[in-house]
Model the fold of this input.
Amino acid sequence: MSLRTVFESQPDRRYIMFGGKGGLGKTTLSATCAFWLASQGKRVLLFSVDPQASLSDIFQKDIFGKGPVPIMQNLWAQEVDADRRIKDYQEEIRKKILDMYGFDRVPEEIDNYIAAASAEPAMEESAIFDAVVDIIVQGDYDYYIYDLVPLGHALYYLSMAKVYDEWINKITKLREEMRQYDQVAATMRREETMEEDKILSELLYIKERINASSRILTDKHRTAFFFVLVPEQMIILDTKKAAALFAKFEVPLSGYVVNRVLPPDLGAGHIPEYLRNRITMQQRYMKEIQSTFGAQILAYVPEMERDITGLPMIERLAKRLFEEEPKA
Ligand SMILES: Nc1ncnc2c1ncn2[C@@H]1O[C@H](COP(=O)(O)OP(=O)(O)O)[C@@H](O)[C@H]1O
Ligand SMILES: [Mg+2]
Done:
């Protein structure tokens, strides 16, 4: 199996992700993969919610917060501005409270609550997740490649529904607390009852979307999830653990890509001892990787002479990855 045969033999897998720790090559591989698929005539959206604007870096183009930006024929890249998403969220909630209660402005306590709630990781994750949902439900592209943030082996997809549950529980509690405002406001306006809870139904609607999208993202018929690793002790250990977690949550894994493999001919001839030691060490880890992940390894990516930025460099890597046999 190679990366290419995975794509060719499973054309329905249109949601593509590369997982792994920060700095291992997720963005590089996402971009390389996007480039190759686009050059095969597929319409590809490569997107990220990473505040580091790493797609801007790799394509050497400012695309942050600008929606889908064309990169080349058939390829678009998009970097979601997560902070702005969160602010929009807060604003929306404020508006809804004002509408619901007929206030001119949001009472200070409530405003504080909204601010505190949005400082929570759950709020940020929710906003990010919602942005991802917006992107993947459009259906305009043949492939959606999600360039993951460093924090995840993307396991947070699995916990997302749970995060949402917790958040909704908090909001429900807030609703309870607001009942007093509710009564005061209703009395002032001489109204009998409140209309249905718009905020809560909105949240439940969002939660539904999250569930629908986490179904897509964990569906092995539609999603390909690859792990990126490098020949280093800690990373091998980490990848094994992550793979075990994936198995536990029944998230389908499509295979492994080994990045930063030193060119084999580097060891030939006279070289400094320092380099010789590095090569020997890497060879040992390569053996370990092969005995651990074996046939599930889809590609070996050579350590290039410099960072991978710009389309010509990405093209070189795409040729190497998709048009040559995988070899260590
Ligand atoms: N095979 C490689 N050869 C040379 N540089 C690489 C290679 N893979 C990744 N890099 C460089 O390493 C850095 C981290 O890679 P990146 O793809 O951004 O990792 P991640 O997205 O997992 O954090 C980038 O500067 C990238 O250009
Ligand atoms: Mg990255």
Q: What stands out?
A: The longest strand covers residues 223-229. The pocket of adenosine-5'-diphosphate (ligand 1) is lined by residues 20, 22-28, 54, 150, 259-260, 301, 303-304, 307-308 (CB under 6 Å). Residues 17 and 181 are 46 Å apart (CA to CA). The beta strands are 15-19, 44-48, 69-72, 75-79, 143-147, 223-229, 255-261, 297-302.
